[in-house]
Amino acid sequence: MSTGVIIALIVIVAALVLAAALFLRGRGRGGGPDLKRRFGPEYQRTVARHDGDTKAAERELAERLERHGKLRERPLEPAERERYTVRWTAVQERFVEAPREAVAEADRLLAELAGVRGYPDGGRYEEQLAALSVHHADHVEGYRRVHRVARTGAEGGTGASGAGTEELRTALMDARALFDDLIDGDGRHRGKAEAGTAAGDGHRTGPRTQGFLHKTSPRES
Questions:
Q1: pLDDT reading at 217 higher than 90
Q2: Hey, where are the domains in the chain?
Q3: 24, 27, 69, 90: which could form a disulfide with 65 (CB 3.0–4.6 Å)?
């Protein structure tokens, strides 16, 4: 191989390396705004969890997007939708007499419904949550909250007695937003549109939710 050919190859390789570096640099600059738009409130929660380290948070969110961005939700049959709606209504009604049990059932119901829609099954909670955060970023915090409260109650530690009825009520109301998204075939798109309403009200309510969570539980003193 002649010296001229070697030099030409070196120049080509150097040019390719430079182009790749510029491409990656450009992606890094665009990652922040893109991830902010994609994840909304979940972006800020992730940054806070990383103690303000934006780069670490964006790496985590980018990894979630890489793993779960191509997931396609399986549509629910009308009978399935009705069955899950009836079960959620029963959870809400049970809350009045047994708030902790109702919250635990809501946690299980969300895990099951997400699995039916095509997300990782509920036995892999962290992975399921990560996938949901990619497609339902506006409302995934409700699932996180109800799961945390339900798990605390199941463990029976000091936190279980400390979780009052109001905390349980708030967790269940927040979780309802994700349930509505999952039960609705177009929930992924509706979640972004209704984010402002959810933020303004603190929760979303429909005809089935109004009133029941505002009743005083017999256990509440």
A1: no
A2: 3-68, 78-214
A3: 69
